[in-house]
Amino acid sequence: MAIVTTEHDGGHGRESGHGEGHHDTPQQRDGKERLALWLFIAGDAVIVALLIFTWIYTRALNTNGMWRGAACTVANPCTDGLGNPLTHEVPKADPWYSVGIAALAVVAALVFWNAERSARDRAGRSAIAGQASLGVLVLLVAIGVQCYQFTALPFTTIVGTYASSFEFFMGSTLAHLLVLAFIGFGMWNRARAGRYDDGRWYQVRLIRFFAVWIALSICLLTFVMSVFA
Amino acid sequence: MGRDNEVTTDTAPGRLEDTALGPQAGGLYRRQNLITGLLCGVVLAVLGWLLSHALVQGSHWGTDMVVTVTMVCWVLGFNAGMGTFNAPIRWALGHDQSDEDLLYAAGVGQGAKRYWKFCTDHKVVGTQYLVLVLILFFVGGGLALLIRTQLITPHSSFLSPQTYNTLVTVHGTTMIVATIIMVTGPFTNFVVPIMIGAKDMAFPRLNAASFWIVVSAVPCLLAVFFLGGVNAGWTTYAPLSVQDPPAMDTFALTILVFVTSVTIAGVNIIVTVFTMRAKGMTLGRLPIFTWGSVLGTGLGLYAMPAFFLAMLLMITDRATGTSFFVAAQGGTGWLYENVFWIMGHPEVYVILIPPVAAMLEVASTFARKPLFGYAVVLGAFVAIDGLSILVWAHHMFTTGYAPDLSGPFMLTTELISIPTGLVFLCIIGTLWRGSIWTRLPMYFVYLFLWNFIIGGVTGIYLSDVPADEAFHNSMFVTAHFHYTLLGGAMIAAAAAWCYWFPKVSGRMLNERIGKIAFWLIAVGIQITYIGMFWEGFQGMPRRVAYYDPIFLRANQMATGGSYILFLGWLVLLYCIIHSWRNGAQAPANPWGGKGLEWKVPTPVPLENFLVEPVVTSDPYGYGEPETNGKPEPTEAPHEPELVPAMVDEVPAGGGEL
Amino acid sequence: MEAKPFFSRPGGKIFVIWLLMTIIGVVIGLYAPKHLMPQMVSIEGHRAVLTVVVFTVLAAPVAALVWAVGTYSLLAWRRGAPETPPEDGPPIRGNGPLTIVWLIVTSFLCIVLLVWGLAELSADTAPHSNALQVDVTGQQWLWTFGYPGTGVQSRTLVLPVNRPVQFNVTSEDVTHGFWSLSLGVQIDANPDVVTTLLATPNKLGSFVVRCSQICGIYHAFMYAPGKVVTTTQFAQWLQSQGASAAKADLAARVTP
Do residues B291 and B620 lie in contact, with contact meaning Cβ atoms separated by under 8 Å? Predict the structure, then answer.
């Protein structure tokens, strides 16, 4: 392979005295982080797609009629996980909690979008930090509601694949919200520390991408949970 | 430009590795190493065990939940103690690591200790991975030897059925884990950044994290032996896996952790190759190994999440009482099988493509010819990637699920033979009229050619649905995938070991010992797996601890072969260790290779290049006439005194430099 | 100017090596499956053996081509193992026409395989009237075979010759694999679903049913003997298992 060695950075490395490797330019760093984020989102998208597949598939197969326990009758009672007899269908869960959580996730994404706008317009540390803290607050409320929903389900034990899938989707939503809340918390701290001053707003934009993905995936799962009960 | 004459001692750059760092550089990293990792892991695991034990009292959650929580705490604790979480936590608190911290994290000033720490230098991570995969491969191989020993006689009392099934499962999983990272762990990490003219991977801290995360998964797998064993084979089909002892929880967790590591590594590799190439390193000039790494790990990004989900669904079925796979409660084993094989088929190409790409580099270098059909190979890899996503149900032909889909999946499966065949064309095209230099790495290229044809052809039998009905889950299948994965991927990986060994270790491999190993391995593979084909033809199922006496001769052949094979691998391991310690010093370019990795000195300095190279051609310029009347530069211009070995260093007349 | 004789040119020498290897491969294909695989007792089993033979014979020349070129490269162009690399070979970066020919030939072979497979598949799955129904139930760790309409449950699978059989397969617990190589059948036994499979025994003899899907500790012990017998013997056997004479006779000849 033919190579021609050449200076870089206008001789910067030489001056620093130890030939230190160059730092990435901001564009290089942002480009790397953006590609990495898209790749992670792609992986997460595969999981979400498979979750939806799991729901649709087990519902369609309805093995033993036990999607919601419809095979249970008085004459032939099914038992729950503890051996207690069930003689009726597992009731459908109230979708409104999940819809509310999805709505809150959308609100959080919009807040982060606004934060990106603030950062890009160089609106100052407190503006960005304020948006970030608002976003985190919204997410904490969503997390709280999600945790509460676990206790508010009409099925107390897990019977039938509907109940299993429903709770699994709730768990997935909770996990994603927690990750986003952590990232939002980081954004709040970093905004206050001045990491997004002077037009260094690109990370805020990436956080917005991620928040939008989280909101989108939660909406997708909620749609499936509500419509295909 | 006058640079040559303006170097004074005041501004003479020294080696980056020799930078003097302040006493606080590195922060918490200074105090973290494998010992702190182990301590934190154990402490947190004990705490987790106590806490979960207390919490499950009086609930219907039991041992499975306790085991899962304990092992999760182990993983988190170990990684916290290693320093994996330092950077994200600092990020979230609004601080960043300083340049000095990053230099410390890259291993400056720590000597050999850096191999026991969270070290971000991609060469250190590559070496750490090399040691890890060797350990995993030989442990997995030892388990195989135990399995084959049980099968010397039809009704041996060497192992109990539970132990046997556990060994089969752990052998399979250890090998899957090892082969997924076999070439991408050590060599993509060590060599690819240099190959593309970069100073490190795109995310050096993520790189180190991916290594230590895999390490944390290993005790989870070993814990299987202490928690009752598992019965379900590495494929751990539900509902059997839902039924198994608590060992299955730690098994599933191993996979969850491993998949996380592979995903992180895959993202790192792809971002590195697409954003960190040196000037002039266009995508069309990329060495094929770089493409193989990208396409292999990229496919993994699609497949690994499916593995993650399958295991997570299994854990919730076991620990929290969900019923995804429990038919009585509306679940179905077919759900597991579909999700699993959506991962399982692409996964074999994740295993296969990087070593094959590495082997193509070897073939080119040792035939002294350009790679034949670069674009064809690239297209074939892409086609294999794409098609492999569409074939998963050929593992499910006999499940009784959706028989109408058998035809379409047979079609897509048989289509994969076309791009695979094109890769073979390019291998033999590279050899054609070459100047065949029969050093040790080249031996493995020829063995690959032999083995993989047999493996590939027998795969075609299995892709035919009625023939699959005959052979599915018999030892025929076992022989087929060992021919492709061991005879193919592992042999290609061995070629890669021998090829880059001088660059990684600074020593030359002892080829005399290496050739003994090679012949033992080559002969061992044939005897062992032809014996297994025989077993399969006769109708012996796989994963059985006892068998009908009519299978005796075939089993004796396979077991005898396996001893020879294992001995061969042991000799190769000995060769590697012995050469690493006592081998002749390796020059920077012992093979006359044309890639950038051969233009840097051995040992490779921190950040690889003192100045960023500018590339003007691909690394396959063997035999090409001089361009424009000017000879290709053999020395790096302008800085001979700074970059003493940045030339094609081929020692004249002897090995020692 | 004389052209070099064929067998002293590279192509000629490769042809010789190729021919030798192909012949060996064809011989293996004709000999190995028939002699290593057990006696087949059904149409499907015989078809499977035929497939293996045909595929091996078809694969032999393709494998031999790759191996012949590889072998020849070692014979003709080997430069030994000196310390320094030998001089470079010619800068051949590819060959468009060759690649296209290769692509076409391999695609054609692929289509042949596919057509063969689809034809076989449709023959194996063609519905049969008057198929004998046999219920196969797997459990940890034994097989039970039931003959609907006769009340017979047996641990041995007995089948009448020359009559299609439909197996209705299920499991009591985990997934098992209902497999008999000689009978040319394999299908999983899944809990709470019934999967079906057809076969037509056409030769008297015995076979073994083995579990092919690992199912727990004693998976290796999960096998059952089987026999293909004449129709009369089949009716007699049913009676010996407790069926009434009338039912046994009916089941032997007609689907209940």
Answer: no
Q: What is the pLDDT of residue C255?
A: 57
Q: Domains of chain B: which residue ranges?
A: 23-119, 120-582
- Whether residue C123 lies inside any domain: the answer is no
The CA angle B391-B459-B347, to the nearest 5 degrees, is 45
Tell me the whole-structure pTM to 2 decimals. 0.91
Q: Which residues of C touch B537 (CB under 8 A)?
A: 32-33, 36-37
Which phi and psi angles does C158 have, rounded to 5°? -110, 135
Contact state of B539 with C37 under an 8 Å Cβ cutoff = yes
Q: Which domains does chain A carry?
A: 26-227 (1.20.120.80)
Q: Inter-chain contact A158–B320, Cβ cutoff 8 Å?
A: yes
- Measured CB to CB, residues of chain A less than 8 Å from chain C are 63-64
Q: How far apart are CA A167 and CA B111, in angstroms?
A: 51
State the DSSP code for C255: -
- In this predicted model, what pLDDT tens digit does every residue of B454-477 receive, in sequence order? 999 999 999 998 899 999 999 999
Q: Terminal CA-to-CA distance of chain C, rounded, Å?
A: 83
The DSSP-derived string for B25-69 is: TTGGGGG-SHHHHHHHHHHHHHHHHHHHHHHHTTSS--HHHHHHH
Is C192 within a domain? yes
Q: Mean per-residue pLDDT for A75-98?
A: 77
Answer yes or no: do B466 and C117 touch at CB < 8 A: yes
Name chain C contacts of A63, Cβ cutoff 8 Å.
192-193
Cα separation, C154 vs B102, in Å, equals: 72
Q: Per the structure block, which two tokens stand in for B437?
A: 């230099």
* B428 to C197: CB separation less than 8 angstroms, yes or no: no
**A54 vs B15, B324, B328: nearest CB:** B324
| Span B298-321, average pLDDT | 94
> CB distance B370–C218 less than 8 Å?
no
Q: Which chains are within 8 Å of C by 3+ CB pairs?
A: A, B
- The pLDDT value recorded for residue B653 is 37
Structure token pair of residue B499:
């090829």
| Superfamily of the domain at B120-582 | Cytochrome c oxidase-like, subunit I domain (1.20.210.10)
The structural domain count of chain C equals 2
Dist. CA B75–CA B126, nearest whole Å: 22
Q: How many residues does chain A have?
A: 229
**Full pLDDT tens readout for chain C, 256 residues:** 456 777 778 889 999 999 999 999 999 999 999 899 999 999 999 999 999 999 999 999 999 999 999 999 999 999 999 999 999 999 999 999 999 999 999 999 999 999 999 998 888 888 888 889 999 999 999 999 999 988 899 999 999 999 999 999 999 999 999 999 999 999 999 998 899 999 999 999 999 999 999 999 999 999 999 999 999 999 999 999 887 877 777 777 765 4
The verdict on a CB contact (< 8 Å) between C188 and B544 is: no
**Side chain identity at residue B637, one-letter code:** P
Kindly give the pairing relationship between strand C185-189 and strand C157-160: unpaired
Q: Is residue C224 part of a domain?
A: yes
Sign (positive/negative) of CA torsion C239, C243, C244, C247? negative
Give domain status of residue C167, yes or no.
yes
Among B398, B534, B657, the strongest candidate for a mutation testing the C interface, having the largest count of C CBs within 10 A, is B398
Nearest to B609 by CA among B582, B563, B645, B575: B645
Residue B5 has pLDDT above 80, yes or no: no
- Closest-CA residue to B128 (of B150, B113, B141): B113
Decide if C91 contacts B627 (C-beta within 8 A).
Answer: no
